[in-house]
Amino acid sequence: MEDSIHEVENENINKRGNESKAVSSLSANRLREKLSRPELATLYTDLKSYGERALIEPMPSLTFRLYRQFRDTGERKAYEQAYFDRRGRLAAVAMLALDTIRPDALQALEEMLWDVCDEYTWCLPAHLGTGEVNQVDGNIDLFAAETVQMLAEVVMIHAERLDRLVIERIRSEADRRIFTPLYRDQRKFHWQTADHNWSAVCGGCCGMAALLLLKDESTLQESISHTISCMNAFLSGYGEDGGCAEGIGYWVYGFGYFTYYAEMLREYSEGEINLLTGSKIAAIAAFPLRVHLSGGTYVNYSDSAEQEEVPSGLLSLLASRVGLQVDLPLHIPLLTNDPCHRWAHLLRNIMWSDPAVYGDGGGSAPAERGFIFQNLGWMIAKGALDSSDTKRTNGEPLHVAISVKGGHNDEPHNHNDLGQFIIHCGGENILCDPGAGLYSQAYFAPGREQLFHISSSGHSVPLIEGQEQSSGRQAQAQVLEAKLVEGGGELDITLNLTSAYSGAASLARYTRQFNWKMASDCPKDRAELCLIDRFRWKSRMVSSAEPFSSVDDSDTGCSSVVERWMSRVQPEVVKSGDLRWQGTHGTVHMTYDANQWQVLTEAIDTVDHDNVPIIFYRTSLSWTGVNNETDVRIESPNSLETVCEVRFIIEPNMVETEVSMRE
Question: Which phi and psi angles does 294 have, rounded to 5°?
Answer without folding.
Answer: 180, 160
